[in-house]
Each structure stands twice: as structure tokens, then as C-alpha cells.
Automatic annotation (TrEMBL):
UniProt domain Phosphofructokinase: residue ranges: 4-309
Protein name as catalogued: ATP-dependent 6-phosphofructokinase
Complex formation: Homodimer or homotetramer.
Catalytic activity: beta-D-fructose 6-phosphate + ATP = beta-D-fructose 1,6-bisphosphate + ADP + H(+)
Organism: Candidatus Bealeia paramacronuclearis
SUPFAM superfamilies xrefs: Phosphofructokinase
Name of the gene encoding the protein in the UniProt record: pfkA
Keywords from the named record: ATP-binding, Cytoplasm, Glycolysis, Kinase, Magnesium, Metal-binding, Nucleotide-binding, Transferase
Binding site for substrate: 139-141, 176, 183-185, 236, 277, 283-286
Residues reported to bind Mg(2+): 116
Highest taxon, organism lineage: Bacteria
Family of this protein: Belongs to the phosphofructokinase type A (PFKA) family. Mixed-substrate PFK group III subfamily.
Binding-site list for ATP: 12, 78-79, 115-118
EC number: 2.7.1.11
Function field: Catalyzes the phosphorylation of D-fructose 6-phosphate to fructose 1,6-bisphosphate by ATP, the first committing step of glycolysis.
Length: 361
């Protein structure tokens, strides 16, 4: 039977989204002969009237998409349909409009590419609307549960690693301590992975409380040993030593992480006398070409998600476990937030290399 399949990207973008849209389209159209519709701007496209969607086929999703950053369908990380912010400052439940949008497009099933927040919303919508839904995890933060990797993470790690590669020579030229602030929201995966790959001396992540004095003593030891520079990686959500969040609040009152590296640079410089500089890497980690690993993951997830729909499955999430794509119940994945395992082998590796987490380990 010919199905009508929708695909949307939701939440913050990352590298590999176009590759997954391509994989979904190719598998559905060539493998099963279905019609595919790409929904614009995540759930916003389903709220619009007329619904904003474009037919997708192998002509539209040519091979160049596998290399392109961003998402050509657009996305949003604002506008939870269950509490949608209205211009007058109130919040409206617009979930039923989305369900009606799915019906207007006559979709038999929907694939949503998103992080934990988006998948939670999509799960609730599918329960309310009774439509078939398959989730694909993406986020540079890599904090979605039950999958070893989400699309976009490894590219972000590569970008942060390259930043350390570039900071190290300039640090050595000027006898400086360079501090790199990376994204990741409340999870320290990017800092941890890039810190090891980029040869950091100190890695600070939200999962491990630190003391500034211990960081300072590590830096002093490095300089005392004859090395004239040091590299520190810090996750954006690390708190100040006093336990305060460092956030930026915009004119509308919305806040986001940013600026902890400035705080740390000042403290380290005061305590050690070393000259410090900080770099906030920001959205560079989300844009640009996906790494080969993310292209592969996106392709594997896209094909498998379509196969699940062909098998009549719903409310499942595709995940990467033990070198395989497998499926898990979506509600279980949503409830399994994945912070850094501080007793896991990656943290153990970092400690084994002599990298400090600013704690008394
Ligand atoms: O969740 C992905 C992410 O890039 C986080 O790492 C970061 O804190 C946040 O999104 C930034 O969001 P925005 O694009 O709204 O600034």
C-alpha cells in the first residue's frame, strides 16, 4: 500500500540533518514507493495554514545534501505547541492545530528528527492525535538516553577539537592559558571528548564539581615543569565556584548559557599570574559539513526509521548501540536523560592521561 510519510526536523540544528532527510526520502520512495513530504520549520509548519510542506523525492534530495550543514526544511527550538508563546505574553495550547495539520496532509506516519525536548513534545502529540510516529535522535549535546550517539555530536566534537588544535600554537607563542568554552547544555560530553582529543590539561564539565584552587595548582605545576602554555576546556553549563549559573538573557527575557569561560579566565589569571584568554566557540559547533561518522549515522537512522514504519511500528526511537542501529520505546528514551558517566571509561581515560577535572580525585 502506498503511504504518505512526513518528515520534520525540530529543535536546534546540527550537522547531519540534511543527510537524514535524504536517507528517509530515498528509502521511502525507492524502497517502498511511498510519497514523502518535508515539513517546514518543525511543528510550526504543521500549525501554518495552509500547512507548509514540500514533496520530497530523489530529484530533490540529491547527493550534495549529505555534505550540507543545517536543515533545508528549517527548524525551531522555540514554540512548544502545548504552551505556545503568543504576542500578548500569554501561552496557548496549539497541539490540536498540529494534529489537524497532519490530517490535512493525509499523512499515514511521521518521522521526527529531534533532541529529547522535541521528542517529548512529538510523543505527546502522537498520543493525543493517534498518528504513527518514529523518532530519530539528533543533538550536539549527546544527552538523549538509550543511544550511544545522536546525530551531530561527533561533528561538534571535531569542531571543538580543531579549535584546541588552533589554540595550542598561539598559546605556546604567547605563554598563555587558553580556555575554550563549548556547548552541550547540561551535559559535558562535548568538552570531555574534545578535551581528550585536543590534548587539554583541564576539562570542566557540569557533572564534576570543581575547586578553582585545584585548577590553579594544576596550571602552576605545568608552568613549573617548564611548559609555557596550558589548555582548558569548559562546558557552558559549568557553574561558578559559588554555584551560580552564567547565562545571557535577551530582551524578551529568554536566557541561555554563555560566559563561564570569562569568569574562569579571570580567576585563573588572578590565582596563577598567568596570562589567560578565552574563546566561546558557540554555534560554529552546529554549522558546517557533517563528519563522515555523522553522515553514516544519519543515513543508517533514516533508513531504519522508514523500515520501522513499513513494519507497522510506532512510538519507537532508532538508536545506536554496539555497532548496530536498534529500536527502543520512545517513552523510555525520553525518560533516560544521558549525562556524562563520571565512573565511565571516557572519564577514566581522561584521568589516566593526567587531565584534571578540577576535583580532588
Ligand atoms: O541543544 C543544542 C544547543 O546547541 C546547546 O548546546 C546550546 O546550549 C543551545 O542549543 C543553544 O541554543 P540557541 O541556538 O537557541 O542559542
Amino acid at each position: 500500500m502506498t503511504k504518505r510519510l512526513g518528515v520534520l526536523t525540530s529543535g536546534g540544528d546540527c550537522a547531519g540533518l540534511n543527510a537524514v532527510i535524504r536517507a528517509v526520502t530515498l528509502r521511502a520512495t525507492q524502497g517502498y514507493g511511498w510519497q514523502v513530504f518535508g515539513i517546514k520549520q518543525g511543528t510550526m509548519g504543521l500549525m501554518s495554514r495552509p500547512v507548509e510542506a514540500v514533496p520530497l523525492n530523489s530529484d530533490v534530495v540529491d547527493v550534495s545534501l549529505i555534505r550540507q550543514g543545517g536543515t533545508f526544511l528549517g527548524t525551531t527550538n522555540r514554540g512548544n505547541p502545548f504552551a505556545f508563546p503568543m504576542p500578548d505574553g500569554t501561552f496557548l495550547n496549539r497541539s490540536q492545530e498540529i494534529i489537524e495539520g497532519i490530517r490535512a496532509l493525509k499523512l499515514d506516519a511521521l518521522i521526527g528528527v529531534g533532541g529529547d525536548g522535541s521528542q517529548d513534545i512529538m510523543y505527546r502529540l502522537s498520543q493525543q492525535g493517534g498518528f504513527e510516529y518514529i523518532a530519530i535522535p539528533k543533538t550536539i549535546d549527546n544527552d538523549v538516553g538509550l543511544t550511544e550517539q545522536s546525530i551531530g555530536f561527533m561533528t561538534a566534537v571535531d569542531v571543538a577539537t580543531e579549535a584546541l588544535d588552533r589554540l595550542q600554537p598561539t598559546a605556546a607563542s604567547h605563554d598563555r592559558v587558553m580556555i575554550l568554552e563549548v556547548m552541550g547544555r547540561d551535559a559535558g560530553h562535548i568538552a570531555l571528548h574534545a578535551g581528550i582529543a585536543g590534548g587539554a590539561d583541564v576539562i570542566l564539565i557540569p557533572e564534576v564539581p570543581y575547586r578553582i584552587e585545584l585548577i590553579a595548582s594544576k596550571i602552576r605545576k605545568i608552568f613549573a615543569s617548564g611548559r609555557n602554555f596550558a589548555l582548558i576546556v569548559i562546558s557552558e553549563a559549568v557553574l561558578t565556584e559559588e554555584g551560580e549559573k552564567v547565562i545571557i538573557t535577551d530582551h524578551s527575557g529568554k536566557s541561555r548559557y554563555g560566559g563561564i569561560s570569562h569568569y574562569l579566565a579571570d580567576k585563573v589569571s588572578t590565582l596563577t599570574g598567568a596570562e589567560t584568554r578565552y574563546t566561546v566557540l558557540g554555534h560554529v559547533q552546529r554549522g558546517g559539513q557533517p563528519s563522515s561518522q555523522d553522515r553514516l549515522l544519519a543515513s543508517a537512522f533514516g533508513v531504519y526509521a522508514v523500515d520501522l514504519i513499513a513494519q507497522g511500528k510506532t512510538n519507537r526511537m532508532v538508536t545506536w548501540q554496539n555497532r548496530e542501529v536498534v529500536e527502543v520505546p520512545l517513552d523510555e528514551a525520553i525518560q533516560s536523560y544521558q549525562a556524562v558517566d563520571i565512573n565511565g571509561s571516557i572519564v577514566h581515560t581522561a584521568r589516566g592521561l593526567g587531565i584534571s577535572f578540577g576535583d580532588r580525585f
